[in-house]
Design brief:
Chain lengths: ~475, ~475, ~475
């Protein structure tokens, strides 16, 4: 392109058009995210209770638009009822020698979630059915809950379990199951349009890292970054709720609004380890969120793992259920259930979740949100090819080298037919959208492209599902 | 699923929901079918004539709703005219030594179909053009007809043909070609709906087993089984007619009715040998009959042979012709023309057709008809996932094993969107429909699924064909 | 088919139905085309000027309906303006020893297209930026132009360039850039219908063979052949214009007409060498022109090279631009830019373009045009299969061999549903359309097929583009 230096200059001016901040790094932003996860680690989260509130207040400190919402026990939401609030003060077992073990104070996974209060002495054989271990991971304390059936239990490492001696055991659980509230958080970050992008994540697991803390931490940092952008095309809605029931509750309150407004949605879970990138589609598989996720992962992590909607397991189960059908896809690192430490005490901030792992997921979601921000539909303003040479966009002699930028320009113009959005054009050209954004701005500046308003997602939402 | 025994009990109650009778076997039902074929073997069937009537009367004994219909010679049907009725009393050749050969009494294939009466002495050289053999199968008597041009001929084994000595031969054919009737059979087995499933088969070939008797025999046993079911969703129409002309005649009388009512159709031919399973699609290739056949064969006989509609050859030529376009597919054992004994005396009840061969085809068609009976469209009654634990359908502690049945339940609910029929859901899940029927019934019982009426086939019939 | 000689006779009568003349050969027609190219070789063509007019007048001699159109300099067409007309009388360089080189009289590629007049002495170093060579092809004179920015330059072989000695050089260009005209040619060959087939080619390159002369020569011979046909279904529009600007100009004058009328279009470029066959699709990729090109090349040159529309480079850039979207595909020999001699003096009538090369492209386009002429839509007149035997189209005894022609007949009838055109049926049957045309005529003669009028291309043109 030596023959048209003007184009090189103009492209320079447009090169930061996409909106990523190159100064953010795994060592910088990634470490800050990891530090926040470490601060949240010891809090005792469950379906309800004080640990969830503490978690959300710390996140609110990082992302001030975050507001907390309290829903009373007994509230109906679709097919469900908010259960009593669960408060734990202490819990342990005392063995025949008086030694205390499975102490809640040592690790909050030791107590089965929603265990009822108890102070009772019983034989080991009577105790056994209430003890949960993972023989395949003898050092791991497993994660267990019984939200909807009154029960109690302790979780401990299989190694410790095998050393239990017969005799009387005292079982002590100082907990309350009483009318209270379920707590969730919501942050709305307004944009130019009332059309929304939804980010959902969950807060309900005790001390676990990839399958809990990575989600709210990356979501919160995405929120901070969105807030810091000078302008947003879309309104962003960030939802932090206990998994399953929290998502159902949130949908029961906002379903019509979400179906009218949400153009794309991502559920952030397992976004903290550094092993893989994974994609799980929406039920329909071809929504704007799916197209965006496939585009971003295809260019940034070409070897990413593809799952089927049949392998779903987190809140996409609700957001993509029939009659809800929000355009939600997942871009995970290693998927829940697919790494050995999943749902045990080994899913921690040393072995599993790393600054680089968190940062990778953060970057991938930044790319996706920026793709959505830039994914407009254009038409060429000129019938036939425009005279690019007269605008400094084409070599003036036929001998001049036609560089890749010029080829992109002609291809952009040749496909800007007012019906194909930029994401589809980028996919068709085999180019990442972020490498085309500067050229599009340049062509818009030159008056060669004009945006065509397209209420795209509406049709998506109204279309019937065919598997 | 040890944690929710209630589900196991409930599934037990639903396990026979599909409707197959496990006591039917190749040794039992298969042998009974083979016996019926043996009874029909010696009858002299042709395009018209007494052999067809005798055959249909025996089938009527087995399936009382079967009625016989007589159509006079000379009747026009679309582009065709019903020919004279053909009656044969005897036929043979007498060689120069006075020995009689190619005796109709020995094997009814010896006489070419629709041979005119003759009693004449002629030289071997004059006789030769009227003798038909199969040099590639020297022991086989081939099957030959000349329905629409007056002619005569004899068929004999090539071995016998080569031993013919020169000299005068007497040709004796005691037959009548005279105004009479073409005979076909029809059985209507009513169901809850006026929508119909059509089974067609043909009766017009003399003593041949796979390419004749297997079709009417399996069809008749399917009819008996349908009659014995306590309830049928669809009305079943079973048509037994001479191939080609019989199907054209039947269509000329019932075209509008069939196009309005038939939701799926199968043509039963070559359903008696034990070598292969084969599929031949409708002209469109994606009708409900095709989807059902592919589903059933895909699960029961995964290595089945797939043919193209370009390889059609039986009455699907009429039922799928432009402007008729019934949704007819074929599930055969070894396809006509694809086994060496085809259209010869070797296609018999010893070498080719077996009880196991007949029973396999019977079972495959039972599966297809039951898939159609159960192929309804449901929607979930609950927005978001229902609370399965409260209904005994989910383990109450998160540690409980989530068994395959629970996964099927959530997948069924997640795809029951009121637009996707059970066959499509089963295909999407990669599961045979018959393994889902019990769960669907259970979920309907629990009030979690509600049926959505869908006039599916109507759109199929009105859609234009694109190859 | 020994049993139905009547069919053999009837097919004989129909065997020339397609319309090719078997007496045309590469040695005959191919050599005549090559001779015409040789006559046009020395003319000095450019974007405008006398060489274009001379070229078109010679072509007019061969194809009398060709008319010349003159468009004044300064005329606006969409985003462009017709530049001044360029006339060259002489041009050369004189080296320090007085030797003249890069003489326009020796080869018209020596002078950069649209060089302004000049007579000036300058140092070699001052001259160098105006000299163009191809170091990778040291014997080739490259082709260079500067249509829209005033400039001057000389092109010479790199071998000659390397021998230039320092010292004063006289640069002599006796040329005029003055108001005049741009010239293009157009031939309308009327047919029974006002629907049109468009053939476009370009005249603007100086002495080059594959990437210039092959196009107008083959187009002209196609025009002669079309004129000689007793009857044409379509009206044919042949356009000869300077590349890019000529096509844009032509579209600016005829866009509405072309969008309403053109059913298929081909751009003829690089249709003269004997190395490859190539296909470049329209922007949509599935127009009637694309289907025809793929059908023809698939049968005649199965190993043909497939390009993407992203690899476009000739006037398809204009004819397929958004809002124009004519159904234009390209059937080339070796594509522009894909052979080493492209855009140099080596692209000549000895090394690159041959009689056989020209004739191959001519034949391929004849096949395509005849496919279009014969690509009608039929429906069977008879419900169910017609009685073919009664019309001499089927063996009268079932023993008679059913030959390939009979299979084609039944397949044609089974797919003639009034919605599928012959091209689609031929593709479905895997048969070249030209082998079915005779049978279709025969079946129409017998009253078994009736044509269905179909305004097919209209829907194509109105359909939105989805990449």
């Amino acid at each position: 392109m030596s023959n048209h230096p003007e184009l090189v200059d103009q492209l320079q001016r447009w090169s930061c058009a996409f909106g990523l901040d190159p100064t953010e790094t795994a060592a910088g932003t990634g470490t800050t995210m990891h530090d926040l996860a470490r601060e949240l680690w010891p809090l005792h989260r469950s379906l309800t209770g004080h640990g969830v509130r503490q978690t959300l207040r710390i996140l609110q400190r990082e992302l001030p638009p975050l507001t907390l919402h309290e829903v009373p026990s007994g509230t109906r939401c679709f097919d469900w009822t908010v259960p009593p609030e669960w408060t734990v003060r202490d819990a342990w077992l005392e063995d025949p020698t008086g030694r205390r073990l499975a102490r809640f104070q040592d690790h909050n996974l030791h107590l089965m979630g929603y265990s009822r209060p108890l102070d009772q002495v019983m034989d080991l054989e009577e105790l056994r059915p209430h003890l949960h271990t993972r023989p395949d991971l003898p050092d791991a304390i497993p994660f267990t809950t019984s939200y909807y059936k009154e029960n109690w239990g302790f979780c401990l490492s299989h190694r410790e379990y095998e050393q239990l001696r017969p005799g009387p055991y005292r079982v002590f659980i100082d907990a309350t199951l009483a009318p209270g509230h379920l707590t969730y958080g919501e942050a709305i970050i307004p944009g130019d349009s009332r059309e929304e992008i939804l980010l959902s994540t969950y807060v309900c697991h005790p001390s676990m890292a990839n399958n809990e803390l990575s989600g709210p931490v990356v979501t919160t940092f995405l929120g901070r970054w969105l807030l810091g952008r000078p302008r947003r095309r879309f309104t962003y809605r960030l939802v932090y709720a206990p998994e399953t029931l929290g998502a159902i509750l949130y949908l029961s309150r906002h379903l019509d609004h979400l179906r009218r407004r949400v153009r794309a949605a991502f559920n952030l879970t397992c976004v903290g380890d550094d092993r893989a990138y994974s994609y799980l589609p929406s039920r329909r598989g071809d929504t704007l969120a799916d197209r965006t996720a496939l585009h971003v992962l295809g260019h940034l992590a070409p070897g990413f793992q593809r799952y089927s909607f049949l392998q779903r397991g987190s809140d996409e189960r609700q957001y993509c259920s029939p009659g809800v059908d929000l355009p939600m896809a997942l871009m995970m690192r290693t998927k829940y259930g697919r790494y050995p430490e999943y749902h045990t005490s080994l899913d921690d901030l040393e072995r599993v979740v790393t600054p680089a792992g968190l940062f990778g997921a953060y970057r991938v979601h930044q790319h996706a949100l920026l793709c959505l921000e830039h994914n407009r539909t254009w038409r060429t303003t000129v019938t036939c090819e425009p005279n690019l040479g007269s605008r400094g966009l084409w070599p003036t002699t036929s001998q001049g080298v036609v560089g890749p930028a010029v080829i992109d320009i002609t291809n952009l113009l040749a496909h800007a037919d007012g019906a194909t959005d930029l994401l589809a054009i980028a996919d068709h050209l085999g180019r990442p959208l972020w490498e085309l954004v500067g050229l599009v701005g340049l062509l818009e500046d030159k008056g060669l492209l004009a945006e065509v308003p397209r209420p795209e997602a509406t049709t998506d939402l109204n279309r019937q599902y065919m598997p």
